[in-house]
Amino acid sequence: MRVDDRGAASGESLRVFCAVELPEEVREAAAEHAARLRRDSPGASASWPRPESLHITLKFLGEVTEARVRDISRAAGAAAEDCRRFGLSVEEAGTFPARGAARVLWLGVRDESGGLARLQRRLERECEAAGFARETRAFKPHLTLARLRPSRDAPALSEAHRRSTFGPHVFRVTDLFVMRSELGPGGSRYTPLSRHRLGDE
Questions:
Q1: Residue 159 belongs to a domain with what CATH number?
Q2: Which structural domain, as residue segments, surrounds residue 169?
Q3: Gap between the Cα atoms of 189 and 184, Å rounded
Q4: Catalytic residue selected from 55, 161, 169, 196
Q5: Strand pairing category for 45-47 and 55-65
Q6: 142 catalytic residue (yes or no)
Q7: 196 flagged as catalytic
Q8: How many domains are contained in the chain?
Q9: By Cβ atoms counted within 10 A, which residue in 4, 15, 26, 125 is the most buried?
Q10: Is the residue at 4 inside a domain?
Q11: Which H helix or E strand runs over 19?
């Protein structure tokens, strides 16, 4: 474990979350899928995250002090050490909400081995022991492909996405990351603060 405090002045608050990163081939496939949707629905108004920013969030901590980032990293390290590496598949396309006017386009994450769910539960326990509030909502892993705004082509865009076939794109998870999120005019920028290796299979 190494906590990277570059750009963090003493006492500064950081926007922090814990996540699993995606391999380049999954990001490229998601980018190609998004490009097709944008090409076919040019009148739709939406914000599209940069492909390099796509990740699977396990826990969002929000604004925390630099000292608390170290506590989060220790919790993440303990959770990772207690979990073995596992496989995931990114497949399926859907929207939130599932019916009616869509606000979010997502890509599904299939956790057939249950490894991701185990890692998330362990992370919740470790973070709670460190004094962070437990997440009350059910864990539903997904990739956020776009956030929609009301527009002429939004219904056609969301329907095209729902009807599309994506994946499966299979990969192995070997690390858990503590990430910093910085909001800017060009969208959110994510920086790894610490990386924690999962146990051997």
A1: 3.90.1140.10
A2: 13-197
A3: 7
A4: 55
A5: unpaired
A6: yes
A7: no
A8: 1
A9: 26
A10: no
A11: strand 13-21
